[in-house]
Amino acid sequence: MPLPVQHAEPTHVPDTATQVMVAMRDTVRLATDVYLPPDRTGRPLPTALVRLPYDKNSRYVFMDRIAAYLTARGYAVVVQDVRGKFRSEGETMPFVHEADDGYDTIDWIVRQDWSDGRVGMFGDSYYGATQWAAASARHPALRAIAPRVTGADGIRPDYWQRDGITQLFGALYFAAYWTDKWAYEFTPDLTRRPLADAMDAIAEGIGSRPAMWDSYFPEVRAVQAFPHGHPFDGRPIPVLHQAGWYDNCLQPSINDWAELASRPHWAPVQYLHVDSIDHESYHLDDVPVPPELDHAMVDAAVERMLPRHLDPLVAFFDVFVKEARTPDSLPRVRWHHGHLGDRTAQSWPPPGARTLRLHLSEATSATVDERGGGLSPNPAGEEQAASWVHDPANLVPSLLDDSFSALRHHVDESPLHRRPDVLTFTTEPFTEPLDLAGPVRTTLSVGTDGPSAHVYLKLLDVSSDGCAHVLVRGQQLIPGGPPAPVVFDLTHAGYRVRPGHALRLHIASSDFPTYLPHPGTEENPWLAAVGKTTTQTLTTGGDRPSALSLTVIDAECPS
User: Fold this and answer.
1) Helix (H) or strand (E) holding 259
2) d(CA 100, CA 516)
3) Which residue in 185, 168, 314 sits closest to 248, CA to CA?
């Protein structure tokens, strides 16, 4: 029986916008909304451009509200459905046309009588990727970009398979948004094996197979998004890298900042802003999110969110697009320090940051209860070992249904810590604040009796009532063999661990359905119909230690 599928058709163009069908170099026309200030006196304006695939007029992207905020601050705003989506013509294929279409759209803008010839681009996720693509095409009128919760190389198919582990979401995303011009909603049957059959059922329900699946499964293949060369190798351009501590695209954003900040010609115009948000812009300060603050459902919540969402962008564009302020008015790095507030610095990690090393200990207790083993500044003594079984028929569940809205749901992960296939190591409750500000890494001495294995790590804040919430995470495919050192990058944190709270390290070999499960064999995870159990072993102390490395700064009183 086909999978039930619903699709969304385009919503109406608001009265505040004028839609134009803009022709690209191959005559394909892209639906483009132009918003101008209602009190414009005829003077030309700098332009803020967004190119997106999610229906430029949908409530989800609230571009009419964003446009009102920016036009009130002296910008023309242009919002475009990318090629093949909703009202735009052409084939539906992500990434491959964005460089040329971005260039051609900017070229059209600068020829309009309302344009002063200066363009900045902004937007989240895929519409951050369209910025990097346009930057790679090097139009001289593109003065600055402000990609948010994304990365230059961060959302193409090869991103969704990192460190040998594949995120299931990638296949679902391409089915939902890139099968054709519409967007689709469905609930896949992820009990089916092989999992490729579950994907086939989605395509059958929609009535078509997304072309991008050929680049995603059963094998991931790179997609050429930059036909004119990688943007990092072109003309330096001011970039406001905007990220979220709870965003599942945090690492690509940080990577872009770090890479360009290390290049002499790019470094002077690179800026970093990291907020305590998830991919959908829910904020740590609001958890648990009450109904009246849920911007997915309540218009007033969108209005409340806009200043925090857009003011850093306006300040950046005022310098590099409008040229109304000087660069010294911008902080080089701004971050929201969880439970403390906004902070600024000249670098990231901030000056004075140091490494705090916490050693895994009491390994034999790692599966006894929720606390498990210990995390201590003191090295463990003699070697101890802990083992756990990965059973493809009894996977560790992903308690967070939507990894893009981590703070909207703010899931308590402690129920997982009662499972025998999850190891935990926990500090004693802190008596003083501990401020995390920089990368988090873990070196584990770990091995498996299988041909290879997945190892998933989560670092959690554990409150006095026992609830455990994820701060950072990372994962790796480890080779078969006895325990050996493996380094895990758990991204970055900007967070205060408050007195009375503890830190806990979660270690497991599955996290489904967020990630494809390892079959326990050498089969492709998409194609495996039957799995095999494997046993993983972790050692601590002695000659094979395991430790967590935190980047910390000296605690300060709230301002």
Assistant:
1) helix 250-261
2) 34
3) 168
Single out the residue of 257, 283, 255 nearest to residue 342, CA to CA.
Answer: 283
- Whole-number Å distance between alpha carbons of 440 and 402: 23
- Quote the distance between the C-alpha of residue 284 and its chain's center: 16
**Which run of H or of E encompasses 425?**
strand 423-426
- Tell me which DSSP letter residue 53 carries: S
pLDDT in tens, 153-193: 866 666 677 778 999 988 999 999 999 999 999 999 999 99
511: alpha, beta or left, given left = phi > 0 and alpha = psi -120 to 50?
Answer: beta
What is the number of alpha carbons within 13 Å of residue 429 lying toward its C-beta? 11
- How much is the pTM? 0.96
Residue from 489, 475, 471, 487 nearest 435 by CA: 471
Nearest alpha-carbon partner for 212 in 133, 158, 154, 157: 157
Q: Distance between CA 414 and CA 219 in Å, rounded?
A: 34
Residues β-bridged to residue 356: 550
Please write the tens of the pLDDT for every residue from 495-531: 999 999 999 999 999 999 999 999 999 999 999 999 9
Q: Dihedral sign, CA of 511, 513, 518, 519?
A: positive
Contact 252, 153 (CB under 8 A): yes
Residue given tokens 């193409």 in the structure block: 156
Compute how many other C-beta atoms are within 10 angstroms of the C-beta atom of residue 527: 14
**DSSP of 273-314, one letter per residue?**
EEESB-TT--BGGGPSPPGGG-TTT-HHHHHHHHHHHHHHHH
DSSP state for residue 333 in the 8-state scheme: E
